[in-house]
Amino acid sequence: MRECLDDGTLQSYCDGELSGAHADGITTHLTQCSSCSAQLDELMSANDIVFAALSPEFQAVVPTERLRQRIDDAIAVGPVFNTAKSSTLARAGGWFAALGGLFTLRPQAFGYASLVAVLAFASVFGLAYWKSTSTQELTPVALVDSEAKAPAPAPRAVNPDYTEVNPKPTPVPLGYNPPKSARPSSNSASSVNKTVARVKLLPGERSYLKTIAALDSTIKSSSDRPMRPELQAEYERNLALVDRALAAARSAAKSNPDDPDAAEFVFAAYQTKVDLLNTVADARVYNRQP
Amino acid sequence: MSGQARALIDSMQDNIATAATTSLSFDEAFTLHHRAVFRTARAVVRDAALAEDVTQEVFLRLYRNLESTPGEEWLRPWLLRVTLNVARNTLRGQSRSYARDNEYHKENYADGWLPAPEEDYERRMAIEEARRALEKIKEPMRSCLLLKQQGLSYREIATTLSVKETNVGSLVARGRKEFARVYGKIGGK
Q1: How far apart are CA A196 and CA A158, in angstroms?
Q2: Chain B 13-42, CB below 8 Å of chain A: which residues?
Q3: Distance from A89 to chain B by nearest Cα, in Å?
Q4: pLDDT of residue A233
Q5: CB A268 within 8 Å of CB A92
């Protein structure tokens, strides 16, 4: 090799990036060329300086456990359907995840969860409730019912989801009397259908409904082993509570179809219901209940 | 060599070949690469708390795209490429605050994962000088230095930075020479 070497080749030689034959040729050249040899010395000196200077930065402690915890937490509450709104939704999801945590394993925790949920939803959705004169929207079942009977010829775009999940009426919340005579006007019915259709368009809702249906089916399929009565009562009360929260969130989303936060609360409420059903289904399947 | 031994060696080679092309699980990917991601992020954003934010975002992206991310061989370049992008975007949206970084360190001394302030002072000054020198180096040479420092091959660096592999040696050489010059000027050892 007669031609002198450029910095890039010499650097590649230093870094062991060249093939054996190529590297051998350069070694031979360096023994014969003082210019290239001096250039190599200069590069190696710079390499030493950079390596020593950057070493403290790259040897500093990495908070592995905290990073892992943060990422696990973010994954646990992170929605898969709307990553663009991750920050707001993560906060809402975190709140609901904390609420969902109250449902796990200890039956007495259901009581605390109920109290927290009632207070929270009463404050957040109180205004929505106050303004809502259509009390039939308090539960998803009632919502379906009212839409099914609505005189407007609009297609029941959303209803199949609900009929799929709730083929028959589920136990209603304690103290709740579903109105039978309330009928929305034709105008309001079409308006409701339009807004419901917009809510339905939110991605991910159908997958929640399918998940809920599957969990519901799992719980019901193990009905040969009766749940302990007090646990059953707590479960039904909390399920009703979550359904009310879900209906309220849905109602708020319908009233504010352009508000992304309202839609996010719907999904957060779905997640809470899934968490509750999941806990109960696990306990039923794996026989962890007392 | 017996036929049985030969068969065993053959199967081992097959296993190694398979392992080289298979994808890592999320847990494995985190365990292997979170340090490189965090350190690269911290070197760019110069703020440990922000570097944690960046690391979280990078691994969340990995989690969401686990099916479509490259296999084990190219995962590190992919992660560091995302890290550099997220870190630069983060930097654009933040005013750098050394005070905030200092506060972060103070909080974490109490947690016990950083050495005591007096033991750490000299090291932190050295890091600060290196960061100031690094800031003077233009891209993509600066990123080349960061990636080379973490032991990436030229091929991995080329993939991470979308440059030609044949140019990496030249970029590293220029970057290191420039760094040594600037670092000497600002009083580095």
Answers
A1: 7
A2: 30, 34-35, 38-39, 42
A3: 15
A4: 73
A5: yes
ipTM surpasses cut 0.90 = no
Q: Which residue type does A31 have?
A: T
Q: What is the nearest CA distance from B185 to chain A, expressed in angstroms?
A: 13
CB-nearest to A53 from B63, B173, B188 is B188
User: For chain B, which ranges sit under pLDDT 70?
Assistant: 1-23, 94-120, 187-189
Residue with tokens 């927290």: A116
d(CA B172, CA B189): 20
To which residue do tokens 């200092």 refer?
B102
Contact B73, B26 (CB under 8 A): no
Closest residue of chain B to A61, computed from CA coordinates: B114
* Tokens, residue A84: 């663009």
Of B28, B19, B63, B57, residue with least CA distance to B41? B57
Question: Which of B34, B59, B127 lies at the smallest CB-CB distance from A57?
Answer: B127
Amino acid (1-letter code) at residue A68: R
- By residue count, chain B amounts to 189
